Amino acid sequence: MLKKNSILTNRQKEVLRYRRDGLAQWQVAQILNVSESAISVVERAAKKNIRLAKKTLDAFYTMDARFFCTIKEGANLFEAIVMIADEANKAGFTITADPVELVRQLRTENPECINDQAVRGYIKVFIRDNGQVYFECFYE
Predict the structure, then answer these.
(1) Is the pTM of this model over 0.90?
(2) Statement: residue 35 has pLDDT above 70
(3) Whose CA is closest to 91, among 62, 117, 67?
(4) What residue stretches are annotated with the HTH luxR-type domain (predicted)?
């Protein structure tokens, strides 16, 4: 029996490739001879698997990172990023990502914790000695 060596099924990879190439769900459905709703289900499951894998990696990387601060619910996302950079400088950390990259990282890795420009729930911020920042999102 062959072992699965990916977090995505072959079908999920196929759908994501078509979508990455700019095809609409209905176009992918026509190519694969399935319904548009089937493509939607496959794509949503693939994205969920990717998010879970990223969260697992973040948990692994934060094991040797220092807890740095907490971004509270309702905080403005952009002000929070500036606060992280300022506090890191005061503490002697050099963050490897610029503020725009941190916003992108936070939005892509924790979309459930960002509502437009406001933080939903709260976010723990961790920094490794090499300057990498990791976010852990908590929400109801």
Answers:
(1) no
(2) yes
(3) 67
(4) 7-43
